[in-house]
Amino acid sequence: MSDTTPGWTRDQMAARAAQELQDGYYVNLGIGIPTLVANHIPDGMQVTLQSENGMLGIGPFPYAGEEDPDLINAGKQTISELEHSVYFDSATSFSMIRGGHIDLTVLGAMEVAENGDIANWMIPGKMIKGMGGAMDLVAGVKKIIVVMDHNAKDGSPKFIPECSLPLTGANVVDMVISNLGVFRRPDHSSPFKLIETAPGVTAEQIAAKTTAHYTS
């Protein structure tokens, strides 16, 4: 997205998601745009990042030449450790997630439905490596934020009435942050509400690019 294009860049979307963090939170960041959230944790705020491949306390991305190929996150990106970082096996990691000990996760998605369903793990007919930890995250984490482009590359909406792709979770998404705006719902029985538009974007433009029902 160029500087003249209305809406948020990927980095700005991640920065907006970081505004939802709170001091003391344990947070899991999905692959893609969500990993950028780590660059925007407010100064002075204590947030502990968890990776489902077995690490609690993830440091910043390393500088070129300082990478450790054995130290990666769940998306296979090289990361760094902190003084308080700890390591554990997958069983312990998923016990943290399934046991409700992670406060918030930020995930990408291919589709989000108006009722909070999310599809982000496979496209039928495409080769995939596996479902990963997304299904556990949406089932066990207290708050689910999706960060995604509002529309697919062909222009089709990604915030839609009903997911057409295999679901990762049903009625689980609490907030959607796209390059056009922010949608939130107070509980899982309420509709999403458009609470914020990105700079240069109008509510009418968002409505024209969205097929999901929401309030404003």
List the topology elements.
Layout: H1 10-18, E1 26-29, E2 48-51, E3 55-58, E4 81-87, H2 90-98, E5 104-107, E6 111-113, E7 118-119, H3 134-140, E8 143-148, E9 159-160, E10 175-178, E11 181-184, E12 193-197, H4 203-208
The global form is globular
What portion of the residues fall into strands of 2 or more residues? Answer: 15-25%
Distance between the termini: 26 Å
Helix content: 10-25%
Tally of helical segments: 4
| Unreliable stretches covering 5 or more consecutive residues | none
Adjacency order of strands in the biggest sheet: 4-3-2-1-5-8-10-11-12
SSE order, as H and E? HEEEEHEEEHEEEEEH
Tell me the quaternary state: single chain
The CATH architecture classification is: 3-Layer(aba) Sandwich
Q: What's the number of structural domains? A: 1
Mean pLDDT score:
92
| Annotated CATH homologous superfamily | Glutaconate Coenzyme A-transferase
Rounded to an integer in angstroms, the radius of gyration calculated over CA atoms is 17 Å
Short description:
The strands form two sheets. This protein has a nine-stranded mixed beta sheet with strand order 4-3-2-1-5-8-10-11-12, sandwiched between helices. The chain has a three-stranded mixed beta sheet with strand order 7-6-9, with no helix packed on it. The protein has helices at 10-18, 90-98, 134-140, 203-208, and strands spanning 26-29, 48-51, 55-58, 81-87, 104-107, 111-113, 118-119, 143-148, 159-160, 175-178, 181-184, 193-197.
